[in-house]
């Protein structure tokens, strides 16, 4: 998780630098596609800040106010990133249409170099942050990675649009703006793609089936466990919270049942290290 935090901090600085560079180059080079890309990078700055904050908050230990921990802060930060992307997409699309309808100068050739460098940097960031997201299981970090990829795509789209405008000559100036419009659609898609899993996690949707199989297999593998049922799992940040009904011999004393439940918890946590808390309900076996 520390690596993910460092990448979020690095992304914040890189996005701020790229946003300023794209904005200056876009205004000086008469390229709305590049200006639109700068706007997307500004959204990246705030999204990286949201992810960084979310990671810091979610790493706090549970307390009396939040007995289940602060893991949901990751889902909130992911949703914020997605909403920022949707807002940026709508704003870019509106301005792109306006620019298409209004004649303007062709973009300057030097804007292509700016976009090529920006796309390369963002693709490298996407790959590194994606790796951190897989290692940590963080939805917020994954959202930040997709944001970097969206920025790389918009830079590439702007590069293509400006190239067409320059090669086509007079009458092709709007290719730059059509590229910005296409970029807005891509940004919108990525925004929705980020928001959906964040909302699902906030509503405690069950995780992947493989997590259920691993947990249930670990519980059933404990000596004395005769059956399991009513397994419920929800995700909170990078951790899982679950409850499980375990059936054992009806003749077990309360003390022995308590010890058995502890063994079940330990087995589950060993098999699935991302499990934060396990609530085991002991019941008499009724399979006979």
Major sheet summary line: 3 strands, mixed
Distance between the amino and carboxyl termini: 47 Å
User: What Rg, in angstroms, do the CA atoms define?
Assistant: 25 Å
Give the CATH superfamily of the largest domain.
Answer: Cation efflux protein transmembrane domain
Structural class by SSE content:
mainly alpha
CATH topology-level fold name of the largest domain: Alpha-lytic protease prodomain-like
- What is the chain-wise order of helices and strands? HHHHHHHEEHE
What coarse outline follows from CA principal-axis ratios? Answer: elongated
Number of strands: 3
What is the average of the pLDDT values? Answer: 82
Unreliable spans are none
Give the % helix. 55-70%
Biggest sheet, strands in spatial order?
A: 1-2-3
Tally of structural domains: 2
Number of helices: 8
CATH class of the largest domain equals Mainly Alpha
Q: What proportion of the residues form beta strands (DSSP E)?
A: 5-15%
Level-2 CATH architecture of the largest domain: Up-down Bundle
Task: Outline the structure in words.
With 288 residues, the protein is mainly α. The protein has 2 domains: 2-202, Cation efflux protein transmembrane domain (Alpha-lytic protease prodomain-like), CATH 1.20.1510; 209-284, Cation efflux protein, cytoplasmic domain (Alpha-Beta Plaits). Helices cover 69% and strands 10% of the residues. The protein contains 8 helices and 3 strands. The chain has a 3-stranded mixed sheet. A hairpin with a 2-residue loop joins β1 (227-236) and β2 (239-248). The longest helix is centred in the first third of the chain and has 30 residues, at 72-101.
């Amino acid at each position: 998780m520390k690596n993910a935090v460092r990448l979020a901090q690095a992304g914040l600085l890189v996005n701020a630098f790229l946003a300023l560079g794209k904005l200056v180059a876009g205004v000086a080079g008469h390229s709305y596609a590049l200006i639109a890309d700068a706007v997307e990078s500004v959204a990246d700055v705030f999204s990286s800040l949201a992810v960084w904050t979310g990671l810091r908050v979610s790493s706090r230990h549970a307390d009396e106010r939040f007995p289940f921990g602060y893991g949901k802060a990751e889902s909130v930060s992911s949703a914020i990133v997605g909403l920022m992307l949707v807002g940026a997409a709508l704003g870019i699309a509106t301005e792109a249409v306006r620019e298409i309808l209004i004649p303007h100068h062709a973009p300057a050739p030097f804007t292509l170099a700016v976009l090529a460098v920006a796309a390369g940097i963002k693709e490298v960031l996407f790959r590194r942050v994606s790796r951190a997201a897989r290692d940590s299981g963080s939805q917020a970090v994954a959202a930040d990675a997709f944001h970097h990829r969206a920025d790389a795509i918009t830079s590439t789209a702007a590069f293509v649009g400006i190239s067409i405008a320059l090669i086509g000559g007079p009458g092709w100036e709007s290719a730059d703006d059509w590229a910005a419009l296409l970029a807005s659609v891509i940004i919108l898609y990525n925004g929705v793609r980020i928001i959906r899993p964040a909302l699902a996690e906030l509503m405690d949707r069950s995780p992947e089936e493989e997590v259920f199989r691993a947990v249930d297999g670990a519980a059933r593998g404990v000596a004395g466990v005769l059956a399991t049922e009513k397994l419920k799992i929800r995700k909170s940040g990078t951790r899982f919270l679950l409850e499980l009904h375990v059936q054992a011999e009806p003749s077990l004393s309360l003390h022995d049942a308590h010890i058995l439940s502890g063994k079940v918890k330990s087995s589950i946590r060993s098999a699935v290290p991302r499990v934060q808390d396990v609530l085991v309900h002991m019941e008499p076996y009724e399979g006979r």
